[in-house]
Amino acid sequence: MQSRTLIRQLAEQPLVRDVSVDAAQAVLALRYSILCRRSGHDPMPELERRWGNILAARRFRLVVEAIAHVWPDPFAVAPPCCPRLSFDEALLAAIVGAASRGDRVDFDWRTAEMLGSDAREMLFAALENFIRAKAPGRV
Question: Which of 40, 43, 52, 62 lies 20 to 30 angstroms, CA to CA, from 25?
Fold first, then answer.
């Protein structure tokens, strides 16, 4: 493999359409929430409509707050219309998938270098609570 090809593969950002539905929804909702925050609007009505219940919207807001609190650097968010994920969004998609599967080992493996144990615990709990609230018939 040529070094050019390897560098391109390492730097390539995944497409939103290539991640799971849960992960894509979380990334797009995060983009929307940040856009609302920057423009002074409340994202809750749209988040409630997106997931069909206010509890899921509230718990997603807690996920966003947990990310803001524990992420070591500013979270890189692509524009709402961008088909590619930023590297932070790709990590979010992966950890949403891990939390959806209840796979704490995968979650910790992906986040251990940048987050301490307390930060990982807070973020994993927030993601699990959000996923439970989003699932039909579960809370």
Answer: 40
Residue pointed to by tokens 């988040």? 47
Q: Are 47 and 29 in contact (CB under 8 A)?
A: yes
By the 8 A CB rule, do 64 and 42 touch? no
- Give the Cα separation of 40 and 15 in Å (integer): 28
| Residue 28, Ramachandran bin (φ over 0: left; ψ between -120 and 50: alpha; else beta) | alpha
pLDDT digits (tens, 9 = 90+) for 43-53: 999 999 988 89
Residue 135 pLDDT class (50, 70, 90 cuts): confident
Alpha helices in the chain (DSSP H): 3-11, 21-39, 44-51, 54-70, 87-101, 104-111, 117-134
Residue 115 corresponds to which amino acid? L
Q: How far apart are CA 113 and CA 108, in angstroms?
A: 9
Q: At what angle do helices 21-39 and 44-51 cross, to 10 degrees?
A: 160
- Rounded CA separation 34/109 (Å): 27
